[in-house]
Amino acid sequence: MTRAKGFDLKRSIDFFKAYPIERRNWSIHNSTRQDIELIPKNFRGQTTKNTIATGRVAYNPS
């Protein structure tokens, strides 16, 4: 798990119980991705040449 010689395991566990990762709101910026080709604005609102599979990106409806 970790190669750190000294760390407080109980404190680490308590932290992740109090602040679960799945409750974080991670922002996604596709403009920095090199595998996506951006296109000019169009009537469909599509911003990339190819669509990104929804199963591969995080979705947070809130």
Question: Please, could you describe this protein's structure?
Answer:
With 62 residues, the protein is mainly alpha-helical. The chain has a domain at 26-62. The chain has one helix at residues 9-18. It is elongated, with a radius of gyration of 19 Å. The two termini are 33 Å apart. The mean pLDDT is 77.
Summary tags:
16% helix; elongated; 62 residues; mainly alpha
Q: What does this entry show, briefly?
A:
The chain has 62 residues and is mostly helical. The chain contains 1 helix and no strands.
Radius of gyration: 19 Å
Q: What structural class should be given to the helix and strand makeup?
A: mainly alpha
Mean pLDDT: 77
Helix content: 10-25%
What string, H for helix and E for strand, traces the elements in order? Answer: H
Overall outline: elongated
Low-confidence stretches: none
- Hey, roughly how much beta strand do the residues contain? under 5%
Distance between the termini: 33 Å
**How many individual β-strands?**
0
Tally of contiguous helical segments: 1
Topology:
Layout (H helix, E strand, L loop, with lengths): L8 H10 L44
